[in-house]
Amino acid sequence: MLPLLIVLSLAPSRPASPGVLLEGATVYVSADAKPRAASVLVQDGKIVFVGDPAAARKQASNAAVIDLKGAFLFPGWADAHGHLLGLGKALETADLRGAADAAEAARRIAAIAATLPVGAWAEGRGWDQNRWPGGKFPDARDLDAAVADRPAIARRVDGHALWVNSAALAAAKIDASTAEPSGGRILRRSDGSPTGVFVDNAMNLIGKAMPAASAGDFERQILAAARACAKVGLTQVQDASAYDANQIAALEGLAQRGELPIRIYATVSPEASGLSGFFTRGARIGRGGDFLTVRAIKSYADGALGSRGAALLEDYSDEKGNRGLLVTPPERLEALAREARAHGWQLWVHAIGDRGNRIALDAFEKANRAVPRPPAGGDRPRIEHAQVIALSDIPRFARERVIASIQPTHATSDMPWAEQRVGPDRIAGAYAWQKLKKAGARLAGGSDFPVESENPLLGFYAAVTRQDLSGRPAGGWRPEEKLSREQAFALFTSDAAYAAFEEDSRGQIAAGFEADLTVFAEDPIVAQAQRIPSIPVVLTMVGGRVAYGGARTRGGAP
Ligand SMILES: [Zn+2]
To answer: How far apart are alpha carbons 495 and 340 in whole angstroms?
Structure first.
């Protein structure tokens, strides 16, 4: 990482905010502009000047100066589809993969436990006794040796067994007299007492005893996830978690207290009992120092391709008779699309298979006809993932003004088996980013973290190479669908801003725009492809505040 140098101006301070001057960088003001040496002046959370360094100095004689020492300054990058709560939970779960034995796994859980409030259950996942000396299942006593002051539980690598400590056994009131549940097994010692390992349905005996997450847990996990996102250069996350009314209230509290390090564009669950209340109250639009927007609903058409839950128009190519499943009845999606449009709210529909995408497009098309003029500048419906699309449906994205919210890393994660699922014909409409773009569709780029990494440079890399991190396959998978560097840059900046109704305030570096900025140590637009994933982030600024980076601005209130 580049060291940052702060030069404090000696000029006398004025009552007006002197701001922060970012100097010494190559600046990309937008995806369709050439990079240039320029300075960016930030005052009161906004960009007030971008251009000639000498002119900037003149305008900002007493601003704090951040010397970016040859780094590359971009509009703030955004993730158009991530799950903050899921990431926050993952950050609080010990990763037990690769642990050499039960004792090491237990120590890793203890390290996580030490970061949690007193009494909170500690969790781990990914242990595999087959890799340990002797190959025996672990015991509650192994875990007690490291974590005795609170319940601790750890899922096996396959998710089909749970290893717990004695405090968890006590909390769940499980002992030698506990009956075997159907469809599950409690491993026992010769005297009938539980060893602390629960298989399949027996895991529910422990799960039932776990306390529900508190508001404090929620806030802690959201903040940890948001900080992790700032660290990889993200200035905003469009959060696909579909929160309930209590969770939205907790997010509002964090925003009001100024605790959010980055912007959150949250989605609400359509199952939330308070949905009509959200409509009545109206959208919450965060701007400036208010980092929270709530104006979208998240629903599901179908499942996922890997587990053959994505809804297909014809059978799966690798499983006769299976066409996947619908998560929400089409009539319900149609009603939601109509309601959202009538209230000027945005509806996100998760759709992965070609049938899931067609059902979502049908719902949006009907809503567009039923409600010709939505309030609040249009509703900009979105299909999340838009993975496998019938070729005849691709033009409908542009025609019905539906945003295809894509996750480039899903393509490179799925490429080893995707064609087995859908066969050689349907694969032509799968992860078909250039076909969508050529048909006039708007895209937005995200990662779906924590399923994939939150680092947007991995998404950028996948979009421009369609290769895994070792550079395979040569030339990229179905390379005709690759995005150019400029297209991929737009995907995570201006396109993501449009998907959040923010193209006039975010996604570019221009006077009057929010001072949401991402600074990379190397230039991802020209770097050799294999270098892109490891380019360091130098600075993340959101609303003029440093969200990540070595610099602490002093001498100016940004
Ligand atoms: Zn998701």
So the answer is: 22
431/482 Cα distance (integer angstroms): 10
Q: Shortest CA distance to 429 belongs to which of 489, 357, 359?
A: 357
Query: Cα separation of 141 and 139, whole Å?
Result: 5
Coil, strand or helix at 406: strand
Tokens 């994933």, residue located: 533
296: helix, coil or strand? Answer: strand
Q: Coil, helix or strand for 169?
A: helix
Report pLDDT digits (tens) over 478-515.
999 999 999 999 999 999 999 999 999 999 999 999 99
The pair of structure tokens assigned to 142 is 């192994």
Q: How far is the CA of 411 from the centre of ligand 1 (A)?
A: 14
Ligand 1 center to residue 496 CA distance, Å?
15
For the cut 70, the answer to whether the pLDDT of residue 553 exceeds it is no
CB atoms within 10 A of CB 159: 11
User: In whole angstroms, what is the distance from residue 13 CA to residue 35 CA?
Assistant: 33
Q: What single string gives the DSSP state of each residue in 438-480?
A: HTT--EEE---TTSS-S-HHHHHHHHHH---TT--STT-SSGG
**How does DSSP assign 140-164, residue by residue?**
HHHHHTT--SS-EEEEETTSSEEEE
Query: 240 CA to middle of ligand 1, Å?
Result: 6
